[in-house]
Amino acid sequence: MSAVIIDGKQVAKDIREEIKVEVERLTQQGVRPGLAVILIGEDPASQSYVKAKAKACEEAGIYSSVIRKNETITESELLQLIDELNGDESIHGILVQLPLPKHISEEAVIQAIHPAKDVDGFHPINVGNMVIGADCYLPCTPHGVVELIKRTGTSISGKHAVVVGRSNIVGKPVSMLLLQENATVSICHSRTKNLADITRQADILVVAVGKAHMIGAEHVAPGAIVIDVGVNRVEGNKLVGDVRFDEVKEIAGFITPVPGGVGPMTITMLLKNTVEAAKKKMMA
Ligand code: NAP
Ligand code: LUD
């Protein structure tokens, strides 16, 4: 039987409608949520993601300011800019689009963002709070992944979740969130031996590697929930995931497509965090 296709675009749209109502309410109370997005350089993928973020803000009524800088910007100039935004009353969330040019330390940049404005959830304070299950900004892509799994109507508790990839942005945090939801979590990476033997044990399989089509039917158990985080450009500028969608959809119970799966949820969760930041500011 063919899998149910999880329509991330539609789920993202539904949540954005709820966010819009919340933004209207906050704006009427005198606090319009505001997001600053810093984009360094000319990377085409980063440009398109940032554009999509600004558009989503506009549609939700969130104020957004996209600050574009040449890739020759120095680290100290960037840190100075972040510092100014940390003190800007109209800005509740700050996001520095990654990756950064090699001469700038991502770690230094992330740590410069005030944790209360870190709507990416990348600051060590937010990461630490996430790990202990305390209040924090959840990282957007991992949060989006968990939300999509929940919307399949399947309970995560007690399930075996296998995450392929251990980056600080996706693999590690999504593993922690699934653990928080009481899944039994296995984390695989480039040194993992016999990957397919492990992934075939997954009730929930989350793939975040960045290698086009690396996961196929041989990696998936019948009925599994398969979440494909990968975004890869292949010949002809076509966008594909890490999962061979056509063959895996014949085996899985649920599967996310690329595009139209996790990507739109990442942006939605960013809007959610920005609204959260504005709310906290209002109550402070
Ligand atoms: P990353 O930092 O490059 O991490 C890739 C991970 O995959 C690493 O942990 C690496 O292992 C592991 N890996 C590499 N080759 C492997 C193999 N053959 N078998 C098993 N594991 C392997 O990437 P990322 O930032 O997490 O992003 C992953 C993908 O998701 C990319 O395609 C990216 O564009 C996409 N992405 C999408 C969204 C979205 O919103 N849809 C958001 C973020 C990222 P080691 O740690 O051992 O090197
Ligand atoms: N840096 C992200 N770098 C890259 N796909 C995203 C992303 C939307 N600081 C910081 O936004 O959260 C971040 N914070 N990231 N990413 C990747 C990562 C960052 C990836 C895909 C999409 C954001 C997205 O909307 C669409 C989809 O999958 O349907 C397709 C878009 C297209 O190119 O057609």
In short:
The protein is built from ten helices and eleven strands. The chain has helices at 8-28, 44-60, 75-86, 106-112, 124-131, 140-150, 171-180, 195-199, 245-248, 262-283, and strands at 4-5, 34-40, 63-69, 93-96, 160-164, 184-188, 204-207, 225-228, 232-234, 238-240, 254-255. Helix 2 packs across helix 10 and helix 6 (140-150) crosses helix 7.
Commentary on this structure:
The chain has 284 residues and is an alpha/beta fold. The termini are far apart. The protein is built from ten helices and eleven strands. The strands form three sheets. Strands 1-11-8-7-5-6 form a six-stranded parallel sheet. It has two domains: 31-114, Leucine Dehydrogenase, chain A, domain 1 (Rossmann fold, 3-Layer(aba) Sandwich), CATH 3.40.50.10860; 139-262, NAD(P)-binding Rossmann-like Domain (Rossmann fold, 3-Layer(aba) Sandwich), CATH 3.40.50. Helix 6 (140-150) crosses helix 10 (262-283). Bound molecules: NADP nicotinamide-adenine-dinucleotide phosphate and ligand LUD. Ligand LUD is lined by residues 48-49, 52, 95-98, 120, 140-141, 231, 239, 258-260, 263-264, 266-267.
